[in-house]
Design a protein that fits this description.
Papain-like_cys_pep_sf, alpha+beta, 9 strands, 204 residues, 32% helix, disordered C terminus, globular
Length: 204
């Protein structure tokens, strides 16, 4: 059975700190990864790493994140899906990518969510809304709420999502996600041990 992965992150950016201050959530950004390699994923975020104002649908390159931001923290969740659901997820993401210029980041919707106000706009998404949209439209996951209401905590607390890793992003870049959960790859090479900030969760 194939798997997809939900990556939740937090950075030291002004926007990230502002969202965390308002929502009281540990992780404020969500992305979806369809491959077993922790190299890139998909979400709605800044189009250029140095410009937080212009945002939209983005294929995120995480090597650029750790170069630009200090101390990027993350957690990775696995979701097992059927082959049909996996194909549907890829089809949805491909359709966003093919028309990415028409999609914008939904700043107003994000503000509205923090005050429990629905502000829907055509072709506008924020990160958790996008991830929830892909998962519900594909039939891969039921969240019992609309995508625009979805927060990072909803993914963290979902019973079908299996936590594989929590800790700094940089040491695990370019590893196979399945290997990360087993303590292989750069985690092993860097000599991490239980006394480090890295916490490994064995999925076996």
């Amino acid at each position: 059975m194939p798997s997809i992965y939900i990556l939740l992150t937090k950075t030291n950016s002004t926007l990230s700190r502002a969202i965390a201050s308002r929502t009281k959530e540990t992780y404020v950004h969500a992305s979806i990864i369809t491959s077993n390699h922790l190299e890139y994923g998909y979400s709605f975020s800044r189009r250029k790493i140095k410009n937080p104002i212009i945002g939209g649908f983005v294929k995120e390159e995480y090597s650029k994140w750790v170069e630009y931001f200090e101390d990027v923290q993350c957690c990775i969740y696995e979701l097992e899906v059927t082959k049909a659901q996996y194909k549907k997820i890829e089809d949805i993401i491909r359709s966003f990518d093919e028309e990415k210029q028409k999609y914008k980041y939904h700043f107003l919707g994000l503000v509205g969510q923090s005050f429990n106000i629905d502000i829907e706009r055509k072709n506008r998404f924020f990160c958790t809304q996008f991830v929830a949209h892909v998962l519900t439209e594909s039939g891969a996951l039921e969240l019992n709420k609309l995508p625009i209401h979805t927060r990072s905590e909803d993914f963290k607390n979902h019973e079908r999502l299996n936590l594989l890793y929590e800790g700094p992003l940089e040491p695990i870049l370019f590893n196979k996600i399945k290997d990360i959960s087993k303590g292989k790859g750069s985690i092993k090479k860097n000599g991490c041990n239980p006394s480090t900030p890295v916490q490994l969760y064995n999925s076996l």
